[in-house]
Amino acid sequence: MEKKPFVTLEQLKEIEKTYKTPYHLYDEAGIRKNAEDLKKAFSWNKGYREYFAVKATPNPYLVNILREYGCGLDCSSLTELMFAKALDVKGEEIMFSSNDTPAEEFEYAHKIGATINLDDFTHIEFLDKICGIPETISCRFNPGGYFKIANSIMDNPGDAKYGFTKEQLIEGFKILKAKGAKNFGIHAFLASNTVSNEYYPELARILFELAVELKELTGVSIKFINLSGGIGIPYRPDQEKNDIFVIGEGVRKAFEDILVPNGMGDVAIYTELGRYMLAPYGCLVTKAIHEKHTYKEYIGVDACAVNLMRPAMYGAYHHITVMGKENEPCDHKYDITGSLCENNDKFAIDRMLPKIDMGDFLVIHDTGAHGFSMGYNYNGKLKSAELLLKEDGSVQMIRRAETPRDYFQTFDYTHIFDKVLEENE
C-alpha cells in the first residue's frame, strides 16, 4: 500500500529553484481542515478547548493557524511559555504541564497567568513557597499498572515518571483547597500514539468517575478535565486512521453517562494534542545523493537524523515515497541512510522501494510533529528550513535553515571563526 503525499513532483521541482533539500514542508490546507474537524467533534461541550502541544512543532506560523480555530497552547518549559507570551496568547489559553520543574518556570507561568498542571504531590509545597497557590490549579493523575482497552494493553502508566497516585490526588486537592484554590482540573496521559477510536472515550470514563469521587471526597469545584494527548496517526499505510467524530461522540456519551447525572454537566473538556494536529501535514523532503553496494544496498540522502530523529531513537516507521515512481514496483530492498557518524542514522531498514536513482526526491511522511522539533547538531550538522505549502499553492519559508554562523554563535570567542565563515559565505 502507498501513502499519497500532499505535494507533487512538479511542485518539488519548482520549490527547488528557491529552496534546496533537505527541508520540512507543511500542508496548510490539511492543517486547517483537521483543526476545523476537531473543533466540530467536541462542539457539544461548551467549554471545550484544544491546547496544542508546542513541543510537537514550535513554529509561530503554524501555531497561529491553529489559534484561528480557538486553540490554546500546552507548554512544558520556560522557553515554550515565552513563546506563548510572545504570540500574545492569554494566560487562560496556556496550560503549563511539566515535570521536575525548576522554580523559575513555575514563577514565570504564574506571572503570565498560565494554568499550572502539577505533576507531583511534593510540587504543591514547592509552588506555594515560590508564588503561592493560584485560584485555578490542575493536577496530573497516574492510575498505575497497565492501561487496557478490551484485552489489549495500550501502555504502562505505572512505569511512567508522571503524575499523582489516586491517594495523593485526594490529599492534594484537600491541601490545595485549604491554601485557597477554588477551581480544579484533572489531567491524565495514559497511552501514546493510539490508533484506536476507543482510547479517548475509555480515558474519559476513568477521569469522569475520578472527578465525581474527588468532588464527593474533597468538596472541590472541578471546572475542567484535560484528556491530554495520545490520539495517534497511522504511520503505516495499512493502518486505519482515527475518526475524530467517533472519538468526540464517545467522549460525549461518557460525559452524559457519568458527569451529567452527578450535577457536573458544566465541566469543560480540554485536549492537548500535538501529533494528531500536525504530524500527517508535514513531510521531510530529501534527495538521493549516494548509493552503496556492499553487504546491503544503501541509498544515502542529504537529510539525516538531525532532521528526523524518530527512526534512529525509537526505531519508528516513517513511510517513504520515491517521487515520480509511485506506480513502479517496489522490487528493490534498501537501507535509506544519512551521513552522521552513527550506524543508526537510518530512515528505513530493508525497505522495499522502487529503484532509486541519484537525484530522486524522497518524501518521508508524517514528520509534521516531533520531526524538526527533535533536531540537534551532532557532527556539526545544521537544522533545515521549514516551508509552508499554502492553500493557494505558493510556498512560504517559515523558518530559515541554520548556517555555520548560527552553530558557532554561542562560543565566547566567535571572532576566531569569522575568517573561515567569511570565506564560505
Descriptive notes:
- It is a single chain.
- By secondary structure, the chain is an alpha/beta fold.
- Helices cover 30% and strands 23% of the residues.
- The strands form three sheets. Strands 1, 12, 13, 14, 15, 16, 17, 18 and 19 form a nine-stranded mixed beta sheet that branches. The chain has an eight-stranded parallel beta barrel with strand order 2-3-4-5-6-9-10-11, surrounded by five helices. A two-stranded antiparallel sheet has the order 7-8.
- Strand 3, helix 4 (78-86) and strand 4 form a beta-alpha-beta unit.
- Helix 2 (28-41) runs parallel beside helix 9 and helix 5 (103-111) crosses helix 6.
- The two termini are 44 Å apart.
Q: Could you name the key traits of this structure?
A:
alpha/beta; 425 residues; 19 strands; eight-stranded parallel beta barrel; nine-stranded mixed β-sheet
Summed up, what is this model?
The chain is α/β, with parallel strands linked by helices. Helices cover 30% and strands 23% of the residues. The radius of gyration is 23 Å and the shape is globular.
